[in-house]
Amino acid sequence: MNWIHDVSYFFGGAFLANAIPHFVSGMMGRAFQSPFAKPPGEGLSSSTVNVLWGFANFVIAYVLIARAGNFDLRTVDQIIAVGAGILLMGLMSARLFGRFHGGNSPTGS
After folding, report:
1. How many other C-beta atoms can be found within 10 angstroms of the C-beta atom of residue 35?
2. What pTM was computed for the model?
3. Would you write out the chain's pLDDT as a tens digit for each of its 109 residues?
4. What DSSP string runs through 1-50?
5. Which of 39, 49, 65, 67 is the most exposed place for a label (fewest CB within 10 A)?
6. Which of these, 58, 32, 55, lies nearest to 45 by C-alpha position?
7. Which residue ranges traverse the bilayer (predicted)?
8. Cα separation of 41 and 89, whole Å?
9. 25, 32 Cβ separation under 8 angstroms
């Protein structure tokens, strides 16, 4: 196994995790932060922009995971690389978007 493939799988996992909130928010018709908003990453982009951005992230994830090397769901180091990318992007997104949506300091329950 070439180590560069694991790096590709890691970033593929990160792009996969990034695709989900954009695509889902867009499909729900909700505005959401994106790199195309003003200011980038803080302002809101339209639901259409988010569907397109989410789809672009899915395509990039596919290329990085399925087209780099010989990805196999039964190979532990490859799954760990993808999972680590998903987890890291998920945690970073939770912290970033939690600032805007109250997730970093929830009140009441």
Report:
1. 10
2. 0.88
3. 689 999 999 999 999 999 999 999 999 999 998 899 899 888 899 999 999 999 999 999 999 999 988 999 899 999 999 999 999 999 999 988 887 777 777 675 5
4. --HHHHHHHHHHHHHHHHHHHHHHHHHTT--EE-TTSSSTTTSEE-HHHH
5. 39
6. 32
7. 7-24, 44-66, 78-97
8. 14
9. yes
**3-class state of residue 36 by DSSP:** coil
Q: Is 84 helix (H, G, I), strand (E, B) or coil?
A: helix
CA distance 32 to 65: 26
Whether a cis peptide bond, with omega within 30° of 0, leads into 40 is no
DSSP structural state of residue 109 = -
- The pLDDT of residue 59 is 98
Q: What is the DSSP letter of 1?
A: -
Written as six digits, the tokens of 68 are 């780099």
Residues 19 and 50: beta-carbon distance below 8 Å: no
Q: Are 80 and 8 in contact (CB under 8 A)?
A: no
**Three-point CA angle 63, 29, 45, nearest 5°:** 70
Residue reference for tokens 């760990």:
80
